[in-house]
Amino acid sequence: MDAEQTATLPTFTIEPTTTPTDAARRAEILANPVFGRAFTDHMAVIRYTEGEGWHDAKVTARQPLTLDPASSVLHYGQEIFEGMKAYRIAGGGVATFRPEANARRFRESAARMAMADLPEALFVEAVDQLVKIDSEWVPSGDGQSLYLRPFMIANEVFLGVKPASEYLFMVIACPVGAYFGKGCVSVWVSEDYTRAAPGGTGAAKCGGNYAGSLVAQAESKKHGCDQVLFLDSREQRFVEEMGGMNVMFVRDDNTLVTPPLTGTILPGITRDSIIRLAIQKGMKVEEAAVDIDELFQGAASGRYKEAFACGTAAVLSPIGTLRRAGGVATFGDGETPGAVSVALKKALTDIQTGRSNDQQNWVHHIL
Ligand SMILES: *Cc1c(COP(=O)(O)O)cnc(C)c1O
């Protein structure tokens, strides 16, 4: 760890809101939470200034920001984020899942975008503090959780093109239900757009990657699909990932196949967790390039039996069909989630919610 990682960390000032959401309204929101629409009462904020480091850590009432119109994020897009969840644990308590992995990835994203290095302990502490003060917002229904959104923006007031000297790190939270609902999603294979190129920002969790993927996502809707799958930018031949989720396939020889982390794919924590669980279940795992033509042929021949997308928001989302200009690949009957997908999702969510043993020490208890 470098000096900044071990330096004395600022302590949080806690300023509870004077206008909390009333309990009846909160209960109404928690009964049927819509992803990303209703937020909790508080937010965590930490400021960074070059020379001074991280300072003014606080948890305060959620409120709009005041930003100078010349703030650098508004012009050059120095912005990164994370996505993680707090779950109610079976038998009591609230916990997040592998938060130190999010903290580490956040540092890596910051390094790629030439942004300030946030100590991992400070990241985890900010999330813990927010979950504590807004714990009544953690829903308890099946598939429900409190989605946490840590993010950082460059807020130096300067139009010169260079890494900013001031940053704002924040965490906001919103209760969420199941992301895609039940059944399988249909996925459009984009042959017009790519998500990331070698040497680019594909492995960093930055807002710009999402901005660049939205037109492809809109294209997938035009073709009647729910999501978009990107291919590699060099040859348009190998499967990369979805707009915001990694992708995996189950082959008929009990093998889980997923594209390797070559720098153009976001290193998902769900991806990593599922790989480990699959190995534990006795499956073979291949992190190997997946040729899109072979995948379409393999779906037809039965060699590729299942496909799914994975990420924090949806956890694991079975793919029923892949479509492209040249045809359709159907996995299973195209509608029913496959047995391996169902088993892996259950194994992961059982750990996240404390219904099964946390052998890997992945669960971070907060309350
Ligand atoms: C966040 C993200 C993922 C999934 O990562 P998790 O850590 O599993 O949530 C996959 N792909 C992209 C592009 C992402 O931004």
UniProtKB/TrEMBL annotation:
Known catalytic reactions: L-isoleucine + 2-oxoglutarate = (S)-3-methyl-2-oxopentanoate + L-glutamate; L-leucine + 2-oxoglutarate = 4-methyl-2-oxopentanoate + L-glutamate; L-valine + 2-oxoglutarate = 3-methyl-2-oxobutanoate + L-glutamate
Documented EC number(s): 2.6.1.42
Family: Belongs to the class-IV pyridoxal-phosphate-dependent aminotransferase family.
Region spans: Disordered: 1-21
SUPFAM superfamilies per the UniProt record, alphabetical: D-aminoacid aminotransferase-like PLP-dependent enzymes
Organism lineage string: Bacteria, Pseudomonadati, Pseudomonadota, Alphaproteobacteria, Acetobacterales
One GO MF term attached to the UniProt entry: branched-chain-amino-acid transaminase activity
Biological role stated in the UniProt entry: Acts on leucine, isoleucine and valine.
GO BP terms, alphabetized: isoleucine biosynthetic process; L-leucine biosynthetic process; L-valine biosynthetic process
Biochemical pathway: Amino-acid biosynthesis; L-valine biosynthesis; L-valine from pyruvate: step 4/4; Amino-acid biosynthesis; L-isoleucine biosynthesis; L-isoleucine from 2-oxobutanoate: step 4/4; Amino-acid biosynthesis; L-leucine biosynthesis; L-leucine from 3-methyl-2-oxobutanoate: step 4/4
Pfam families, A to Z: Aminotran_4
Keywords recorded for this protein, A-Z: Amino-acid biosynthesis, Aminotransferase, Branched-chain amino acid biosynthesis, Pyridoxal phosphate, Transferase
Cited NCBIfam families: ilvE_II (TIGR01123), PRK13357.1 (NF009897)
Enzyme type, top EC level: transferase
Name listed for the protein in its UniProt record: Probable branched-chain-amino-acid aminotransferase
InterPro entries (UniProt xref): Aminotrans_IV, Aminotransferase-like, B_amino_transII, BCAT-like_C, BCAT-like_N, BCAT_family
Superkingdom of origin: Bacteria
